[in-house]
Amino acid sequence: MSNPFRDLPSVEKLSASLLGHSHTVAVEAARQAIEEARNALKADKRTGDIFERAAILATELERPTLRRAINATGVVLHTNLGRATLAESAERAIAAIASGHATLETDEESGGRGSRQAHCATLLRKLTGAEDALVVNNNAAATFLAIAGLAARREVILSRGQMIEIGGHFRLPEVIQEAGAKLIEVGTTNRTRISDYARAITEETALLLRCHPSNYRVVGFTEQASLKELVALGCESGIPVGDDIGSGALVDLAPFGLTDEPTVKESLAAGANLVWFSGDKLLGGPQCGVLLGRTEWIQKLARHPLMRALRPDKLTLAALEATLRIYLYGEPLSEIPALRRIARPVEDIRVACERVGVGDIVETVSEVGGGSLPGLSLPSYAVAIDTESPALLARRLRLREEPIFGRIERGRFLLDLRCVDTQEEEKIQAALTET
Ligand SMILES: *Cc1c(COP(=O)(O)O)cnc(C)c1O
Fold first, then answer.
1. Distance 185 CA to ligand 1 centre (A)
2. Which of 15, 127, 164, 372 is the most exposed place for a label (fewest CB within 10 A)?
3. pLDDT tens digits along 257-287
4. Cα(89) to centroid(ligand 1), Å
5. Is 390 in the pocket of ligand 1 (CB under 6 A)?
6. Alpha-carbon distance 45 to 176, whole Å?
7. Radius of gyration of the chain from Cα atoms?
8. Ligand 1 center from residue 139 Cα (angstroms)
9. Which of 78, 214, 288 to mutate to test ligand 1, by most ligand atoms within 8 A of the CB atom?
10. Where are the alpha helices (DSSP H) in 43-117?
11. 413 pLDDT more than 80
């Protein structure tokens, strides 16, 4: 009887059959295919065509796992799909400096050293009227730095209604503790008054913290002290007020139904000493965290030893600078993809569904997402596909070279086209029509 193990090709022979791949990739794929076949034989299972399998493995090895994808989920700021997508000018700004040297920390005038923070700080000051600005890696880093820099070994007062968890183990009470401060909880989950804060102030109080509950909403019998009240109390007692507004809306999005979202301007106007937010939520830029406030506070944070670990890289700063320039000199609602998608007329989305021309066109609702604006939904349209197994179709689309993400609703597979660009419509059409 022939020995099936003996019939397996050698690594050399199998790898030589893998044309168009580097030697290293061909050998790794061949070894893996042979190993899989051996394991199958040991388990008395059938083996498929080992040459075909090795070719698939070689292709997979060469393909990056972090790839561009099409977001047909209807969630504009989808955290798992990379939140905000960048404006064209921000993409160009990254490309322009990615493979070259850059004026990151130079002062062209004197030829001496400059600050990497200056590029965006100048624009942020102009845009918001804040005295000074600081950019860090994300909003979690901004929160951490603000607390570590202003309240280490002292007390931070926070309402029980604002003890948020953002997800991914980011829980505000734990962050406060890790930043070396003591959390003083006041009020209750649904009601906290300014008098609760006032009573909690001691010699040790270093910060009155307000945090926007981005991803949940407390409704019914509720009350929270306003930022104005907190600022008045802070002034009276000489304690700074910090405001984590989460999304960092720089334009008023109320005309699109986003009425409850705190804007940067409102928070500064109310007198918060330090305001911070994400760069890749409603601001529509790269992942980063932005802190704004009085020079005194900002420079204190800029000098903190943690700053070195939290500082953003040049690609982030290039993308943020380009994005901020749109707010100053361009048309944010049309040039910044996140805002354009939020503002996109529903009729435009219906026409896009017609262009795709596959399946049924159904009314649906999109979400802003990214932990912003819970419960807020934007009317939208989707291409709906009836299939025996929506889960199988969803998987097939996810496994493509350029994965397509939709969602399953009431037994149908939906592709909400709100966040799908025109060039991507054809790819969706092709994916749905190929067998
Ligand atoms: C999203 C969010 C954060 C975390 O921001 P990242 O940029 O994801 O680190 C912190 N606080 C609030 C209120 C948020 O909405």
1. 20
2. 127
3. 888 888 899 999 999 999 999 999 999 999 9
4. 25
5. no
6. 55
7. 26
8. 5
9. 214
10. 50-62, 88-98
11. yes
pLDDT class of 2 with cuts at 50, 70, 90: confident
Specify whether the CB–CB gap between 370 and 78 falls below 8 A.
Answer: yes
Atom 6 of ligand 1: nearest residue by CA position: 139
How many CA atoms lie within 13 Å of 118's alpha carbon, on the beta-carbon side? 10
pLDDT at 259: 83
- CB atoms under 10 Å from CB of 60, counted, come to 12
Query: Both tokens of residue 74?
Result: 């209807």
| Nearest CA residue ID for atom 8, ligand 1 | 139
CA dist 331 and 404 (Å) reads 29
**Any ligand 1 atom below 6 A from CB of 364:** no
Q: Across-strand partners of 404?
A: 70
Q: 211: Cβ below 6 Å to ligand 1?
A: yes
What is the C-alpha to C-alpha distance for residues 213 and 166, in angstroms, rounded to an integer?
A: 9
The answer to which of 34-38, 213-217, 310-314, 326-330 has the lowest mean pLDDT is 213-217
Residue whose CB lies within 8 A of the most ligand 1 atoms, among 135, 165, 170, for a mutation test: 170
What are the strands of the beta sheet with 155-159, ordered from one edge? 132-136, 289-293, 274-278, 241-246, 205-211, 155-159, 182-186
| CB-count burial class (<10 Å; 0-12, 13-18, 19+) for 419 | buried
- Taking CA atoms only, the protein residue closest to ligand 1 atom 13 is 246
Specify the residue with its C-alpha closest to ligand 1, atom 15. 246
Which atom of ligand 1 is closest in space to residue 244's alpha carbon?
13
**pLDDT tens sequence across 109-142:** 898 999 999 999 999 999 999 999 999 999 999 9
pLDDT tens for 216-225 read: 778 888 889 9
Please, what is the average pLDDT of the chain?
A: 94
Measured CA to CA, the distance from residue 417 to residue 424 in angstroms comes to 10
Are 142 and 306 in contact by the 8 Å Cβ rule? The answer is no
Neighbours of 91 (CB within 10 A): 14
Q: How far apart are CA 425 and CA 435, in angstroms?
A: 18
Which of these, 244, 84, 78, 80, lies nearest to 175 by C-alpha position? 244
Q: What is the mean pLDDT of residues 165-178?
A: 87
The pLDDT tens digits for 324-380 are: 999 999 999 999 999 999 999 999 999 999 999 999 999 999 999 876 566 678 999
Q: Is 138 in the pocket of ligand 1 (CB under 6 A)?
A: yes
Determine the atom of ligand 1 nearest the C-alpha atom of 142: 9
Q: Which residues contact 93 (CB under 8 A, 6 or more apart)?
A: 318, 319, 321, 322
